[in-house]
Amino acid sequence: MKPIVTAAEMRAAEAAVIGGGTSVETLMERAGEAIAEAAWRYAGTAPALILCGPGNNGGDGYVAGRLLRERGVPVRIAASAEPRTDAARAARVAWDGPVEPLADARPAPLLIDALFGTGLTRPLDPSLGDALDRLAGAARYRIAVDLPSGVGTDDGILLGPVPRFDLTIALGALKPAHRLQPSAALCGRVAVADIGVPVTARLGEVARPRLPPPGPADNKYSRGMVAVIGGEMPGAAILAATAAQRAGAGYVALFGGGPGAPAALVRKDIGDQAALSDPRLCAIVIGPGLGRTEEARAALDRALGTGKPLLLDADALSLLAGRPLPRFVAPTLMTPHEGEFLRLFGRIEGSKVERARLAAARAGAVVLLKGADSVIAAPDGRAAIAPPAPSWLASAGTGDVLAGIAGAMLARGLDAFDAGCAALWLHGRAAEMAGPALIADDLAQHLAPALAACG
Would the annotation count 183 as a binding residue? Predict the structure, then answer.
């Protein structure tokens, strides 16, 4: 996974490098080089206006301006205030060109926002925010340095109005705001610039999983046997079961459910407890289309009593809400959307990552909090954010498909955290391949090529 670091973690990483003998000026030069290179590749020789703030983010902007000018790019710099750090002052002196008051600056085809980067905690001054909005609105290309000015680094909230950027240069590492909504939607494409600051974090970006294909010694049971327990809405359970098949499970049994499923899907009676006790069964998926009747509650209790790895989704989560959570004895992955999360765990304060971590610790299970910025967290504190997913996943049934994929990953023997990460990646990749007119049924058909990319 690519590490995702908080503002405090990034400051600590930079301090460690500086303590080891690398100067702030050296780091600033590296950052400026990365910004200039990205701007050159993205906008070529388009005339640039760089907005510089008073801190080291502004210093990065002065360095980028000097280097772009050396490449022949017409560059103007506008500042919101005088530099306040020694490194930023030195960068401004090295720029050796005019600096306009930001309030008076005229637009340019390329706008580079180097006003405030990581660590901003309050809204921009209204006059500054208005000037940024005016200049960004008139630009053809918009680049943000580290983060768009006006977003919260660790939670992705908007501290005030923030314009939309085409490209954001993340300095050193990704920050939560690059992947959490609503700020992620304003960052545009995010490129990580290596500035020579090693980072470590317990939060990362979900990466392509390593899923070797079956070998000559494998059979349908060694590839993983999955049970999907249906209920009142058979279509949802069929979607989950089909997805589990397409995601590589060797044997999928659907307990209950209606017509229309693949012929390879094994049918079982919804009350067949003996089948749920099959020692070859590797994982149970329950919730999609289950319903909230007494029969559904009984089916959930049977599943919880098996001691098998569990994927709990949709109605299964709603049935658990309002009662003490069971003690899970096997790997368990819960996949709530925001409404289900609220019903199950109540209101938890903090960023989406913090909320998912607290919920996972409380449940003793891995929690995958779904959305445009899906977050997964384990009880031990591991957490990850999914890469940006296609917006057309906002369609009925796509969550059922995710549940089936995750069930197949559990059946492969992955722990619940890794299973959820793998499912998120495959789900997003299949959506990209299916295209913007997809319906949930299409996702399963594109899982085979998505899975092939993981071999």
Answer: no
In this structure, how many other beta carbons lie within 10 angstroms of the beta carbon of residue 190? 21
Architecture per CATH, domain 2-203, reads as 3-Layer(aba) Sandwich (3.40)
d(C-alpha 161, C-alpha 129), whole Å: 7
Instruction: Output phi, psi for 313, to 5 deg.
Output: -140, 165
Quote the pTM value: 0.94
Check the annotation: does 374 bind a ligand. Answer: yes
| 60 assigned to a ligand binding site | yes
219 is in an annotated binding site: no
The domain made up of 225-452 has a fold known as: UDP-N-acetylmuramoyl-L-alanine:D-glutamate ligase (3.40.1190)
What's the pLDDT tens digit per position in 270-302? 778 888 989 999 999 999 999 999 999 999 999
* Domain 2-203 matches domain 225-452 at the CATH topology level: no
> Binding site annotation covers 370?
yes
Q: How many CA atoms lie within 13 A of 92 on its CB side?
A: 24
The one-letter code for the residue type at 349 is E
Q: Is 117 annotated as a binding residue?
A: yes
Is 130 annotated as a binding-site member? no
For residue range 152-208, list pLDDT tens digits in order.
999 999 999 999 999 999 999 999 999 999 999 999 999 999 999 999 999 999 999
| 127 labelled ligand-binding | no
Beta bridge partners of 283: 226
Q: Is 364 annotated as a binding residue?
A: no
| Per-domain residue ranges of the chain | 2-203, 225-452
Please indicate if the annotation marks 132 as binding a ligand: no
